[in-house]
Specification:
The protein contains 24 helices and 28 strands. The longest helix is centred in the first third of the chain and has 19 residues, at about 110-125. Its main location: cytoplasm.
Length: about 775
């Protein structure tokens, strides 16, 4: 099990010092700063900490959970403590998903640099591992856990304990026979390569062996032609050529002799099935593969709600970290609620709540830094401005000075266009969405725009939902409105500042009254926002009108004000009507974010997904509630075959082993939404076998999303979540495929997977089973 990682652990000076351990200050807040002793474990994959050098230690974090390391100057928390703690001695461990950052302050600049260099090296090594190397490392981790006395050997008693930890319930005699077969040294213990052989015997895939032999004439190998037949017949890769099959053999066959003879062994075949080429997600959909030259309103746009919040909507923390996380996961529309702050500096927070406050200029600087790290396509700043005239001017200055050339401050060609520009034309540009003064219209109309809902779309989010809906009700009559304007103009904070207004180019916020009113009075560069309740009601009452509205104008939908816990709604229902910007509380994991993440996993993860043609046609007859032909209905057959190395839910309870079942959910138009599940397999999370076929009929596959969920059956209470994977129907590969599971936070659970057979037939056929 030797690897590059193991070599570095014994030769790299930084890693050697990290293994000895160092005392550092762990910082959680301005008031919580405590000394802890941190040490890299000998496996090179985990860092433990204790109150003192020889104290009782516990795991702090795994290297595979680390996204990156930042220096102290980039830490929001450490910057607030510069008078107490030296920034140059600090650094931040940033984790994947939603786990809070870990801020540490070393005793010297040199010690901080040792940990920063060492952690960067380890993260790079883990990131660059291929599937086999990850599996080797996973095995090494299990060996470390099973070797209770840490003597580098594993007795049969330790192996029995390990089997329970690995979710395996096995007859003791059979387990002992495998142990003896692997113990080639006959020492009564397993070491290194012997443990690997024991694992291989343990994980022998009978269902894959049977499949392999059904295409192999001699049961020992697949010739080039036999493999080509498999790819065309079972994997439905009709256009596959001999050249491509040969390329796959070269890529996955482990033996040089096999490569020379152009044959694939059983190990090579399994390696192919577990690879990206054997994945359920079509590799052709991973890079940017869609037309990016159409108008912005022709795309679904990954969007965030109250991006500054990393917790709930009432008392949660506001942080620039919310923007960093959203932008790095491909989000292209972020929200900024801006209010008057002290010393003339605008602040960002959820108004009229106890959420903390951050400086507007810090938010803008963060967006400037992270906007295009994941995607080159345009970022939209959705401004909710509640500031006085003076602080609006400050906002405009920060946007102009900090964003510089990134900020789109004029139309692309200097003249009024006839349609929105494309993502391609707006590459690496930041657009401001907000209220705008209208120079072409007379003063009275301009004042109507000044009256604008500067209170913003979320002003009454904390009131009842019925009150919340009033933002989109028809405006008062002109005479009544003029009286309101005169009254409101007494308060300077309600007047829109021209300097800020001038930065809104293509995304002018306007109130929605009706689809007829929008068609008669609004322009393509104007955008309306809808609460989820309002949008869902419109879909039911006038679904086709909403679809047509979204073919020429952008719509933004945001969560109900009653979602004070930062819960989410299902974005699918809004996408069905062509709503482009369905804003999500990205800090909250769950089914809804799985659907969002799965949807935007395609097209390079760039945050823009081209809508189906029937959602881009302004004459479309499509109604999401009543879809009728000529949509290409399809029938999906999914044989759920087996599972591999499913993680244990409670790793501290050695006696418990999961009883897994697989639930398959389809989300799309209402008539397509369905779910089915397999039976559960008792006491086997290591290699459960189901062999059950599920059947689904789908009217509008272009809008369908599939979610595979593995659950631990519990007859006493709700089934427990183990892992999931969500993807668009249009990105699904047919044939024998592995589905590599993700955690609730969307992090890989490698090597956990399920093995399935996928078959799609045209039309509505077959009975549900």
């Amino acid at each position: 099990m030797a690897s590059l990682l193991q070599d570095r652990l014994t030769t790299d000076q930084d890693l050697l010092l990290m293994q000895e351990g160092m005392l550092m200050r762990k910082v959680r807040s301005k008031s919580w700063k405590k000394l802890r002793y941190f040490r890299l474990q000998n496996d090179g994959m985990t860092v433990w900490h204790a109150r003192q050098a020889r104290g009782s230690a516990k795991p702090s974090f795994s290297i595979s959970d680390v996204e990156t390391i930042r220096n102290g100057h980039d830490s929001e928390l450490l910057r607030s403590l510069t008078e107490e703690l030296p920034l140059e001695q600090g650094f931040t461990v940033v984790f994947h998903s939603r786990r809070s950052n870990l801020d540490l302050v070393a005793n010297s600049v040199e010690e901080a640099q040792i940990w920063m260099r060492g952690l960067h090296l380890l993260v790079d090594l883990v990131t660059s591992m291929d599937h086999q190397e990850r599996l080797d490392q996973w095995l090494s981790d299990w060996f470390q856990r099973g070797d209770k006395n840490q003597d580098g050997k594993m007795s049969f008693q330790e192996v029995q304990r390990l089997l329970h930890l690995m979710n395996v319930e096995m007859d003791q005699e059979y387990a002992f026979s495998l142990f003896q077969a692997a113990d080639t040294s006959q020492s009564g213990t397993l070491e290194g390569e012997e443990f690997v052989q024991f694992y291989k015997a343990l994980t022998k895939r009978a269902e894959v062996q049977e499949l392999f032999e059904s295409f192999s004439a001699d049961g020992q190998k697949l010739t080039l032609l036999e493999f080509l037949d498999f790819l065309r017949e079972e994997q439905k890769e009709r256009d596959c050529t001999s050249e491509l099959a040969l390329e796959l053999i070269d890529r996955y066959e482990p033996s040089d002799s096999g490569k020379l003879r152009h044959v694939l062994s059983m190990d090579g075949f399994l390696s192919y099935l577990c690879s990206k080429d054997g994945d359920i997600f079509n590799p052709a959909c991973l890079p940017i593969y869609q037309d990016m030259t159409q108008p912005l309103n022709h795309y679904f746009i990954c969007s965030s709600h109250n991006t500054y919040l990393v917790g709930d909507q009432l008392c949660g923390q506001s942080s620039v970290e919310g923007y960093i996380r959203a932008l790095k996961r491909g989000c292209r529309c972020v929200e900024v609620d801006v209010w008057d702050g002290p010393s003339g500096e605008p602040v960002v927070y959820h108004g009229h709540t106890l959420t903390s406050r951050i400086l507007f200029k810090d938010v803008v600087a963060t967006v400037a830094q992270y906007a295009f790290q994941t995607s080159d396509y345009p970022v939209i700043l959705s401004l909710e401005t509640h500031c006085s005239w003076e602080q609006q001017q400050t906002m405009a200055r920060h946007l102009t000075e900090i964003l510089g050339e990134q900020l789109l401050s004029t139309t692309l060609d200097g003249v009024l266009p006839t349609q929105l520009p494309s993502p391609e034309e707006l590459r690496r540009k930041i657009l401001v969405k907000g209220k705008k003064l209208t120079l072409e219209e007379d003063l009275e109309y301009e004042e109507e725009e000044v009256e604008p809902e500067l209170e913003g779309e979320h002003e009454s989010e904390l009131a009842l939902e019925s009150q919340f809906e009033t933002e989109t009700e028809p405006e008062p009559e002109p005479q009544e409105q003029n009286l309101q304007i005169k009254d409101k103009k007494k308060k300077s904070k309600n007047i829109l500042c021209p300097a800020l207004s001038s930065l809104v180019i293509y995304l002018k916020s306007v109130s929605f009254r009706s689809f007829t009113h929008s068609k008669e009075h609004y322009h393509f560069y104007e955008i309306s926002s809808f609460s989820e309740t309002k949008a869902k009601r419109l879909i039911k009452e006038a679904g086709n009108e909403f679809v047509q509205h979204n073919t020429w104008q952008l719509s933004r939908v945001y969560p109900s004000g009653l979602r004070t816990d930062s819960s989410n709604y299902n974005p699918q229902e809004l996408w069905n009507a062509g709503c482009q910007m369905v804003a999500m509380n990205m800090q909250t994991a769950g089914l809804e974010m799985d659907i969002c993440d799965g949807h935007f996993r395609q097209n390079g993860g760039c945050g823009y997904v081209l809508k189906p043609d029937f959602l881009r046609d302004n004459q479309s007859s499509f109604h999401p509630e009543r879809p009728i032909s000529p949509f290409k209905a399809q029938t999906l057959l999914i044989q759920v075959i087996s599972g591999q190395q499913l993680p244990k839910l409670n790793k501290t309870k050695e006696g418990s082993i999961v009883d897994p079942l697989v639930k398959v959910q389809i989300f799309g138009v209402r008539l397509d939404t369905a779910r089915q599940e397999t039976n559960y397999v008792e006491n086997n999370g290591f290699n459960p076998y189901w062999g059950q076929t599920l059947c689904f009929r789908v009217l509008v596959p272009e809008l369908a999303m599939l979610r595979f969920v593995v659950m631990d059956y519990d007859w006493k209470s709700r089934n427990d979540f183990i892992g999931q994977y969500t993807l668009p129907w249009t990105c699904m590969q047919q044939g024998y495929r592995h589905i590599h599971l993700l955690s609730k936070d969307g992090i890989s659970l490698c090597p956990a997977s399920i093995f399935v057979y996928i078959c799609i037939r045209e039309g509505l056929e077959g009975d549900e089973s």
